[in-house]
Amino acid sequence: xxxxxxxxxxxxxxxxxxxxxxxxxxxxxxxxxxxxxxxxxxxxxxxxxxxxxxxxxxxxxxxxxxxxxxxxxxxxxxxxxxxxxxxxxxxxxxxxxxxxxxxxxxxxxxxxxxxxxxxxxxxxxxxxxxxxxxxxxxxxxxxxxxxxxxxxxxxxxxxxxxxxxxxxxxxxxxxxxxxxxxxxxxxxxxxxxxxxxxxxxxxxxxxxxxxxxxxxxxxxxxxxxxxxxxxxxxxxxxxxxxxxxxxxxxxxxxxxxxxxxxxxxxxxxxxxxxxxxxxxxxxxxxxxxxxxxxxxxxxxxxxxxxxxxxxxxxx
Amino acid sequence: xxxxxxxxxxxxxxxxxxxxxxxxxxxxxxxxxxxxxxxxxxxxxxxxxxxxxxxxxxxxxxxxxxxxxxxxxxxxxxxxxxxxxxxxxxxxxxxxxxxxxxxxxxxxxxxxxxxxxxxxxxxxxxxxxxxxxxxxxxxxxxxxxxxxxxxxxxxxxxxxxxxxxxxxxxxxxxxxxxx
Lengths: 315, 179
Prior knowledge:
The complex is a heterodimer of chains A (about 325) and B (about 180).
Chain A: H1 16-30, E1 47-52, H2 58-69, E2 73-78, H3 90-99, E3 104-109, H4 114-119, E4 125-131, H5 137-151, E5 158-162, H6 169-180, E6 184-188, E7 204-205, H7 209-215, E8 218-221, H8 237-244, H9 248-251, E9 259-261, H10 274-277, H11 284-303
Parallel strand pairs in A: 1-2, 1-3, 3-4, 5-6, 5-8, 6-7, 8-9
Helix pairs in contact in A: 1-5, 1-11, 2-11, 5-6, 5-11
Chain B: E1 2-5, H1 7-24, E2 31-36, H2 39-55, E3 61-64, E4 95-103, H3 107-117, E5 124-132, E6 144-148, E7 155-160, H4 162-165, E8 169-174
Parallel strand pairs in B: 2-3, 2-4, 4-5, 5-6
Antiparallel strand pairs in B: 1-8, 7-8
């Protein structure tokens, strides 16, 4: 199959074949970062702007490194250090970037749908690096990449996503990707944060935490998104940890080969005990390594449909 | 569709190429093979096997995908499919033989040489191809050739190999008049 998309906005709109193509491509790009010279000329002469209007460490650095390892020139813009503090709108900021002939804009924004908004108005390629509680496509891609690499497949596996589902873009993108690739997804957490309406996406919602832990081949832990919760949806962090924290006692219930995943940043002693985060079953840092490969693959694929020739059929 | 090489002819061509590689590069201590994805990788493995039979020792053999080094990434209608690169040995001071199925414009070879430079500084780079069909666009020539096949731009060469296609053969196809 051929890649034909100019933007990476959501996992929802991707087919299983498209997801698999990104994963296959990422597998090839992973090797580049293990070389002495960690750079290939694939995006030479291209300019990548990362416009991060919400805080981020991993994703921003990962995207910028990915672009640099493909030989693109990169600029990073954060809300604090830009004219957005002077009242400039997202659209105007992006149009100014395009006026400087930027080829890719990587956007993180608190508003769901903002990457689509830019894609409809700009000529450059837009990559969604997280839009509100909507989607975080590259996180889901790196998560399924890690599962496939570690367990050899995604289809048929029991994946438990645990914690703050309601406010999590990581959860939504993961659900789309996992369901499309044939995994059995179960959601669990405080009932205020795991609404039963998620069943409509083809997943199981359970309150039987111990049973879900026993069945899981993969456990993906999510952070409590304090910044998105406008009212208190559970009594206290202490109670969340007691009820849903992955501590050593609960860890003992899991399958021997279980994968422990977390998109980061982890809150040690809250959703995950240090002993679990640092255990051999934890692939949290491998997720970070794989994130770089997945983002290189995404930039490479999007770049491949930017040429003027892309609008005409192959000769 | 005309057959240029059947499976016996391919076998003989590879045997001869293996002997030529050994002849040019004895002692073989510094010799290494790198096949270009996809069929160059299979050809490199077969050449390695034959060289091993001749000299009685293993020759380092790797695979290289040149997609990231292509000069037409901004001219294509869709991105190329990227396959694995696996060069599990250092290239410094080695004589590296690039192995490819068809030599045509020479642009793949140029991309492969650029890629190899990122893995080290080989003492020499040589080129082995199963078919040289002419029409070079760059100053590149092969050191070892299975078969020279003069072609026109209206023809297409198909290399099929057991590992990927279930059969060993090289055929030439006349394309309908459009260009």
